[in-house]
Amino acid sequence: MPNHPALEITDLRKTYATGVQALKGVSLTVAPGDFYALLGPNGAGKSTLIGVVSSLVNKTSGDVKVFGIDLHAHRSEAMRQIGLVPQEINFNMFEQPFDICVNYAGFYGIPRAEAEKRAEEELKKAQLWDKARTMSRTLSGGMKRRLMIARAMMTRPKLLILDEPTAGVDIEIRRGMWKTLKEVNAAGTTVILTTHYLEEAENLCRNLAIIDRGRIIEQGPMRSLLAKLDVEGFLLDIDGDLPATLPAIPGATLMAENPHTLDVEMPREMDLNRVFAALGEAGIRVRSMRTKSNRLEELFVRLTGQPEAAAKGAAA
Q1: pLDDT, tens digit, for every residue of 187-207?
Q2: ABC transporter domain: from which residue to which, for each copy (predicted)?
Q3: Lowest mean pLDDT across 89-93, 115-119, 192-196, 289-293
């Protein structure tokens, strides 16, 4: 199995009974050990794709292989390689985290003694061991999300699929989840993530595919795709207040973010020193600089033609 891709999808199609074509010949390959993002606007086909791979939705045609195992021909064997974390919290709120993990393992035929050992390991990794014997409904939102991951890892999946794992949580919880997912991936588990937080994909994932209207419209290494952008944005922190009239710099666009911060957009090939020189001539002294925007979001909007509001809601 190590010589096979973690996930190999070839010409996958799905047409629902209503006539809706959710997938129109999707093909993609995820390498073992990768952290892979699947992005797309609402209705793009992401949920259907994840449903087919996790055997919750029947395909119309095409092939899906998990570590070289044909999902259609050898469903049980293929599914033993996969752990799924759905968007919705779907465990019994009146069970304890320890029991949730042990019972889940039992569904897959794991002996109880081994399941209890794994439950302790996974709950400790998820920083939930001190909550192992408390009622799950008392856990915070972030703890519940981490419990979902711990439960999925009980079967020691080689491929972990997460459908919007941080949807609806605040930034502190989200960043805690990022740390957990990075640790899972660093331990050798291949991770596929669907998310509508494009910042999340840019921070976590090495490769990605963008799906729109049932087709993959772009895929490849994150860095290579971001390099296609011909515009870069920066925020410059200024000493003192910005003047009422900003200098004109050919090729660059300048806007005042606030009285002390300058928003600059410029072509990638443009020399940043030209900007600094022009600002210096205008008496504007730059104290510090940081990248302005989420470049992946810009790429997403450019490729799909979705307005920003739709891009932020990309998830279906």
Answers
A1: 999 999 998 777 788 889 999
A2: 7-238
A3: 289-293
CA distances from 237 to 38, 69, 137, 268 (A): 35, 54, 45, 20
Give the per-residue SS3 of 238-297. ECCCCCCCCCCCCCCEEEEEECCEEEEEEECCCCHHHHHHHHHHCCCCEEEEEECCCHHH
* pLDDT band, residue 294 (cuts 50/70/90): low
- Listed in sequence order, the residues at least 6 apart from 291 whose beta carbon sits closer than 8 Å to its beta carbon are 232, 233, 234, 235
Domains in the chain and their CATH numbers?
Answer: 7-226 (3.40.50.300), 231-293 (3.30.70.1560)
- Taking the CA atoms of residue 120, residue 126, residue 127 and residue 130 in that order, the dihedral angle to the nearest 10 degrees is -40
Burial class from Cβ neighbours inside 10 Å (0-12, 13-18, 19+) for residue 219 reads: middle
Contact of 102 with 88, CB cutoff 8 Å: no
Average pLDDT, the chain: 89
CA distances to 71, 104, 245, 298 from 233, in Å: 44, 47, 20, 11
Phi first, then psi, for residue 116 (nearest 5°) are: -65, -40
What pLDDT, on the 0 to 100 scale, is given for residue 92?
95
Q: What pLDDT sits at residue 48?
A: 93
Helices 97-107 + 112-125 axis angle, to 10: 130
Q: Which amino acid makes up residue 103?
A: N
If we measure between CA atoms, which residue out of 148, 41, 134 comes closest to residue 87? 148
Which residue do the tokens 């192992």 mark? 132
